[in-house]
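1st attempt posting a full record on here, be nice pls
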Amino acid sequence: MKTAAKFRRRLFKKKNVFEGWYVRLLDEKTGLNLAFILAVSFHEEDPHAFIQLFDGQKEKNRYHRYPVTSFSFEAGTLHIGDSSLSLSHIAIRLPGFRLEGEISVRTTTGKGSSMGFFRHLPLECYQEVVYHEAAVQGVLETADEEKTLTARSYMEKTYGKSFPTEWFWLQTNTFAAEGIALSMAGGFVPFKGFRIFGFFAHLHHDGRNHLFSTFNLSSIDITEEEGLVRFMLKKRRRRLLVEVHRAQATVLVGPGKNARMRRDVQETLSARVNVTLRHGRKTIFHGEGAFAGFEYTITEKGSNNA
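the predicted structure (as tokens):
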């Protein structure tokens, strides 16, 4: 599965499903810290397209509704109202806000799906990392100012019937050295009468993508202290320790049952992450990621082995 395949539309002519594209833009020098969600919900009682604009610096989120007819996906480009998104360009046009930027993808997760063969199973939610990191250059206009935009970016794709009952999500590509990025997600989902826990974690380091996931027989252990969530992932002799220092969260809107957009999603774009990758006794990587995106609703702690 190539980057273009991960970006493209997945759902057609179905009721009670959602499909969304999530894009982050970050520039530490200017304090720019934004996330955009361009999506559509086909809930039979409240179908609509929408764009969410989450300002992580101001800790504010705006939800803009559109008719379903304003949503389209043609020739590799997503359109909602006057806004559009592709793998090479982003245009967000909202009241009092305009962004135009060219996207140059630098780092991806490779050809394979983040969910492996699980993407073929009838689950309630699917997620793909489109790219770990890209450079975005363009122009940002608000009611107060107009400025040149130079930012690093992250993009993912989520679709299905609803978010899991409990889940975590983590993303950062801001480490001291370039070319390092981390993306993780997991949650409890129903499947054929069972409640299973699925997860994946991509750590891109030194030109290599280290993958820990349910489908490649990795295990995960989650513990929590005050203000800190610790993930320990294991795959044979490899160990990935991720410690997340939580930050103030903002309420976004997510899909509940049958893709109805009524679920509160607590997200921050300002968490801090310590990451250590080991192979046996050898430390392959140790570093700190700043301005991490983080969502966490897990109440059942402990080990979740594949």
